[in-house]
Amino acid sequence: MNRNELRATIVEELAKIAPDIDTPSIDDRVRLRREYDLDSMDSLNLLMALHKRLGIEIPESDYARMQSINDLLDYLEPQVER
Amino acid sequence: MSDFLMPSMGAEMEEGTLVEWLIKPGDRVSRGQVIAVIETAKGAIDVEVFESGTVEEIYIAEGTKVPVGTPLARIGEGQHVVADSELRREAEPEQEPEPKRGPEPQREADPERETGRERAAERTGPPPASPAARRRAREAGIDLATLAGSGAQGAIVLADVEAAASKEEHPAARKESEPTRAGFDREEMRRAIAGAMSRSKREIPHYYLATTVDLRATMDWLDQWNAGRPPAERILVSALFIKATALALERHGELNGHYGDDGFRPADEINPGMAIHLRGGGLVAPAILGANELTVAELMQRLQDLVTRARGGGLRGSELSLATATVTALGERGVDSVWGVIHPPQVAMVGFGRARQRAVVVADGVAAHPAVDISLAADHRVCDGHLGALFLNEIDELLQQPEVL
């Protein structure tokens, strides 16, 4: 899976959690939680969804540091390239 | 034998629309089984029957709006069953939104709504559509009148609605007050909330207390629990807050129950309602039934399920009508303190602010610990500040020993 496919997966799962987000205009640099009003439950649900789809388990401590889609991509990309 | 009435699922609810029957005369039903879908200001709610028996007669047809308390059906021994076809069927005027007519002819008993009972309904007014199609259309905010039906006699079936729903690519373009995916009308919900909150402040003499709780023990326990576990097993701190609140309510029954015409009636069960914010505006506070008896892990699962159904549809009548007190936790995007407004007929609202690092005194020094401000709004007709203080201190103590929760 390349970076684009990974990004598409993340955006897909994000859209399920927050259907009101205008997906074509998502800025990969913004802090997701603040920009899209995600609470801790939304955050956890996204984590669960990514785990399910990508088979990658992100430890809570790492996840807490990720703020934007770029952060997620930078973290996950090396792990999906196998 | 008794009548199944239009339930009140909130202080402000005066009427509801019976949108779908999931049973028919002659069916056996058991206590707690979902038998109807009712549309309220809080969206479409799955309503359970509170007794076991046989459905003898259905009084109110699908699509009818009736006041709270109206008999909808009769549940009995099965000796006086009135079949659907015996009900009068009146011709429908073209634009009438609440037709009085008999429900559809014989259908197969199929409790699994999602697999769809796809058969045409005979009507002369609104477009004929299967119950599954109507439900999906409601959820997706699609007007059935805009669809062409591919079923028998031009009826709209689930596949037709799904095809239309998948064409909707920009939910952000939807108008402000149209029903959302969860099927609630934002303006109607706002009116309902306005009514309930106004009534609360008019009728309930609120008193307020607050205290700051050191969360070092709770957070250490939580970090340890979550560290080794996959995401599906992780716990959020709000689950611990709810458990502690439930146990504290058990000890201080004057905060757990309903206030009615004959005064305060303490509840036998501890069913804390959880205030859940709905995307796009709106608030609903369904209860986690029997929270005091759940493990924290179980409570977390229930909470997740509740949030999913609150935002996506599928909340149950019992979850809305049986809440015995409410917890509001705005979370880490919130603020330090929240001063709640009690939801009548309850008598208490517990608020949890943002858990964040604070400077706290430890022994003779100062340390940085996670801490949270918790507040209590309580009905002064039922109890006084002294009891409220004991209650908050109880929650504090419980959160110092999270492993026991």
Explain the overall architecture.
The complex is a heterodimer of chains A (82) and B (405). Chain A is mainly alpha-helical and 82 residues long. Helix content of chain A is 63%, strand content 0%. With 405 residues, chain B is of the alpha+beta class. Chain B is built from eight helices and 18 strands. In chain B, helix 1 runs parallel beside helix 2, helix 5 crosses helix 6 and helix 5 crosses helix 8. The longest helix of chain B is centred in the middle third of the chain and has 18 residues. Chain B is globular. The two termini of chain B are 42 Å apart. About 13% of the residues of chain B have low confidence. At the A-B interface, helix 3 of A face helix 4 and helix 6 of B.
| Overall 3D shape of chain B | globular
Strand percentage of chain A lies at: under 5%
Structural class of chain B: alpha+beta
Q: Rg of chain A from C-alpha positions?
A: 12 Å
Number of strands of chain B: 18
Strand content of chain B: 15-25%
The percentage helix of chain A is: 55-70%
Mean pLDDT of chain A: 90
> Poorly predicted ranges of chain A (pLDDT <50, ≥5 residues)?
none
**Strand-and-helix sequence of chain B, N→C?**
EEEEEEEEHHHEHHEEEEEHHEEEEH
First and last CA, distance of chain A: 9 Å
Number of strands of chain A: 0
Structural class of chain A: mainly alpha
* Distance N to C terminus of chain B: 42 Å
Q: Count of helical segments of chain A?
A: 5
Radius of gyration of chain B: 24 Å
Question: Average pLDDT value of chain B?
Answer: 84
Q: Largest chain-chain contact?
A: A-B, 21 and 23 residues
Describe the largest sheet of chain B: 6 strands, mixed
